[in-house]
Structures are given as structure tokens and as C-alpha cells.
Amino acid sequence: MKFSLLMVVISTTLVIAHLRFDREKVFRVKPQDGKQASVLKDLTQTIELDFWYPDATHDVAANMTVDFRVSEKDSQTIQSILEQHKMNYEILIHNLQEEIEKQFDVTDEVSGRHSYAKYNDWGKIVSWTEKIVQKYPEMVSRIKIGSTFEDNPLYVLKIGKKDGEAKAIFMDCGIHAREWVSPAFCQWFVYQATKSYGKNRIMTKLLDRMTFYVLPVFNVDGYIWSWTQDRMWRKNRSKNKNSTCIGTDLNRNFDVSWNSSSNTANPCLHVYRGPAAESEKETKAVTNFIRRHKNSIKAYITFHSYSQVLLFPYGYTSKLPPNYDDLLKVSRIATDVLSTRYETRYTYGPIASTMYPTSGSSLDWAYKAGIKHTFAFELRDKGKFGFLLPESQIKPTCKETMLCVKFIAKYILKQYS
Ligand SMILES: [Zn+2]
């Protein structure tokens, strides 16, 4: 009996093997006018495109740089349609599978161990959270804020020296599964913060007076899936009623202008908003936690990739937020500070006008909940590697971003002292 059960387990594992992306391509197209934009949108009626930028077909507009992934089979058709309409395009990635393999270009210091210079899978991240608490018991604690659809724990690391309710910043990474450099940054932040306490003047001051809540992986189930099954996965892994398509886009699931557009209502889309606002366990865990600490949390920062942009509210409307001038000023200086390290250029501004309109995002929700400083980072790069940023770029990405986040934290501390 036991033996046959084992056989079943083995054969199921074999059936759902890793998806491969041999010779799949990533195109970059810049539609010059509305007509060319419609050509692109029409393509999606017959061909399955995975939008990398913007997130979905409905956001495609004239003069926007549009990146999408397509199978080898369909790439010929795409090319001839683009040429037929005299559209500007380039092929950013010729063989996606090769790029996936080339991401891992940093060799292990000790094979199989957690490393800040490498992408770490969920198992490594969990044991890392345990180790960091053991190493800095006076500064770091681990809070389980809930669990995921597949019953994985959602851990927030609380970092700071102050007892009780200090002014706090909440940061999350990995809400979108395939944006791997994002969780890498959250781990780096915790590492640098703890390591430089007592050595770096600014960090010491920040940790003496503030609390940082860091959620290193928001979408744990999706992150695991992106490692084990489908590198291009974005949503969580919850089952949808009356649909065989899996998952909700957690960054469309927040209770802010949630049902404003029907564009995100299809469960088969990458940007599916879910059956109701806060329907997902992951979203609920985060909003409950933030609501519980509403009086102390003064800033909310969420990390995505890619495109090198620093965003602030709003996404769901083109109206400007009441403290627009302040948010604009902080973003301008913060992106300047970021560029001092490697001259990496970021643009900045409200989501709706800087990228494209979005509803149900965590950033807008946090702002509406009363947190006056909310930011979203779209980390490196600008599309050469897209979601497949090589590991050799993790450290530089984290170092420059750290400067920027420290500046924002310093600014918040000053505002509320
Ligand atoms: Zn994202």
C-alpha cells in the first residue's frame, strides 16, 4: 500500500514538471499612434501574449514602450504583422529559456546555503528568518501575520531597538511572484540594517528611534510556484470558482477602487482582481496587520520590478494626492540619491500618469488607510533582462536601493519627530 502511494506521488511529480521556455521571445514595441496601439491589442484576440510592460493589454497606449513574451510558434506571425503595419519593434530576448538559466551567474560561496548575492528559494528564506532572529534577538523578531491559500506562513520581521510602539515603516517584497529581485532586496535590507547597527551613524539612529516591518515575500505560494513550476508566474495560487484558471493578482485585490473597471474581472488574466476586495488570505493578512498598527506606521513601501521607477499615489485616478508636492520632492531627492552609487536612472511620479492606471493596488490602499507617505519601487532593469535580472546585478541593485530607502526613512523620522 505504502509503496503504491509512493509511486503515485512520484508519477504526479513527473507529470507537473518545470515549464520550459525554449526559443520563446520577448518583443518590445512602441506604437506611434492609436491605430498602432489597436493593432497590438487586436493581436491578443488570436495570440496568447504575456505582457511584461504594461501588466495587461488594456493598458497599452500610443507612445508607450510595450514588452511582451510570445511562444516560438507565434513569433513569426507577430513579426510579419508588425512589419506589415510598419511598427517599430525590437526583440529584447531571443531565447527565454537561455536567459532563465543565465540568471544564476553567481557561484555559491557554500553550495546550497542562503546568500544575499543569489536568489533564494522559499525554504532558504524561511530558515534565514530564523537565523537572523537568533543572531540579533534584541533587534529582530519574527511575527506570523497569517498564512497563504496553500497554508504557508506569512512572516514579517520586526526590526528596531525601541520597545513598544515606535514610528514605523512597513515594507513588502514579492507581491508578484516572478519579480525575484524584489524579495532579494528585502533580505538585503534586513541584513544591512542589522549589520550596520552601531557602526553606521544614520542606520543606528533610525533603528534607535523607528521600527521597520519587513515582509520579505508577500506572495509565498506564487513565489514557490515560480521556482518549481513556472518561472513566469505572477499571481497567487488560489482556486477560482467556475474557472480552471488559477490565482488572483494580489496587487489588484486591495479595497480601493476595486471594481472600477471590468478589465481585471477575468480569472484567466495575469491581473485578475479576485472575486471580492480583500478576498485573498495574503491581502487580508497584510491589511489586518497594517490596520492594527495604523497609528505607528508612517510610511509604506512596496517593491516590484522592472522598469526603474519610483511611484506614489494615485493609481486609480489621475487626480493628484493632497500632499503631492511633498511626495514629488521626496521622490526627486530619493531617486537622485539612488543614482549617486552607479548612475542608475529612475523616473518618478504618480502611478496613473507615470505608468498607467491601476485599481486595487496596495500602494493606493495604504494611502487611503491614512499613511501619507506610500511608495512603490520598480527595481532594475529597463527591459534588457526584465524579470530575469542576473544574480550578478542583485548586489548593485540592492546597494543603490538601500541608499534611497535610507533617505526616505530619514525623511519620515524628521517629519514625525
Ligand atoms: Zn509587480
UniProtKB/TrEMBL annotation:
Q: Pfam families, alphabetically?
A: Peptidase_M14 (PF00246), Propep_M14 (PF02244)
- What keywords does the record list, in alphabetical order? Carboxypeptidase, Disulfide bond, Hydrolase, Metal-binding, Metalloprotease, Protease, Signal, Zinc
InterPro entries from the entry? CARBOXYPEPT_ZN_1, CARBOXYPEPT_ZN_2, M14A-like_propep, M14A_act_pep, Peptidase_M14
Q: Which cofactor does it need?
A: Zn(2+)
User: GO terms for molecular function, please?
Assistant: carboxypeptidase activity
Q: Tell me the protein family, please.
A: Belongs to the peptidase M14 family.
Q: What is this protein called?
A: Mast cell carboxypeptidase A
Origin organism is Microtus ochrogaster
The taxonomy runs:
Eukaryota, Metazoa, Chordata, Craniata, Vertebrata
- Gene name per UniProt: Cpa3
